[in-house]
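Re: the 128-residue chain
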Amino acid sequence: MEVKTDTKEKFHVIWVVTPHLSANLAADLYQQVTPILQSGLPNVVMNFKDVQSMDEAAAETVVKLQQRFYEENASFVICELPPEVEAFLDQTELLELMNVTPTESEAWDIVQMEEIERELLNDEDFQG
């Protein structure tokens, strides 16, 4: 599966470059992205602007990937879903399980806010 990655100060931006995200490609994506959790920079913004359709199984894998990141206290935000993909995810009731923003800039904002929240929670743990 082809992905493009750009590393920013607090996160990685990953562009999924495929018109159709199948279950097999989503499994590959899971395997490619999961190691980021072990890096010193575990937050991800996943840009889906080039994805025109996806299988339900692929969408479920993306939800599992997002959950894995949040279980590890890392951010995972999906952005730029094309309208047809967003409608499909809404129809399958998976959209409500995803952390989705319309633009990449808004996704960056969410990652940065979640980083601040985690830092504040860690400070409270040390003080309390």
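The CA atoms of residues 23 and 58 lie 4 Å apart.
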